[in-house]
Amino acid sequence: MKNYQMEVIPEPAQGTAAILALNKSGQYPLMKGKGTTNYLCGACRNVICKSVERGQLINLVFKCPNCGSYNYIKGT
C-alpha cells in the first residue's frame, strides 16, 4: 500500500469546488475501496481515502473529518 499526502488548501469559495465531507467529526476514512493507494490529510496525516486507485480521485476537495483541513488531490 502506498501513502500519498494531499495538499492542504484554503476553504474553497462556495460553488467553486466539489467538497466531500462528513457531518460527524472523527469519522474516517471518507472513502474506502479495493485499490493500492491511501491518501492522507496534508495537515494531520489521517487516512482520508483508503485503498483507492491512484488517479481515480482527481480535482476533488476533501474536508478532513479529524482536523477540518481542506485537502486537494491533483491529477496524477
Descriptive labels:
76 residues; mainly beta; 8 strands; single chain
Characterization of this structure:
With 76 residues, this protein is mainly beta. It has one domain (2-73). The protein is built from no helices and eight strands. It has strands at 2-5, 7-9, 19-20, 31-32, 37-40, 47-52, 60-63, 70-73. The strands form two sheets. The protein has a four-stranded mixed sheet, with no helix packed on it.
Question: What's the quick description here?
Answer:
The protein is mainly β and 76 residues long. It is built from no helices and eight strands.
Structural class by sheet pairing and helices = mainly beta
What is the helix content?
Answer: under 10%
Strand order of the largest sheet: 1-5-6-4
Strand count, sense and barrel status of the largest sheet are: 4 strands, mixed
Please, how many domains?
1
Helix and strand layout, with pairings?
Layout: E1 2-5, E2 7-9, E3 19-20, E4 31-32, E5 37-40, E6 47-52, E7 60-63, E8 70-73
Parallel strand pairs: 1-5, 3-7, 4-6
Antiparallel strand pairs: 2-8, 5-6, 7-8
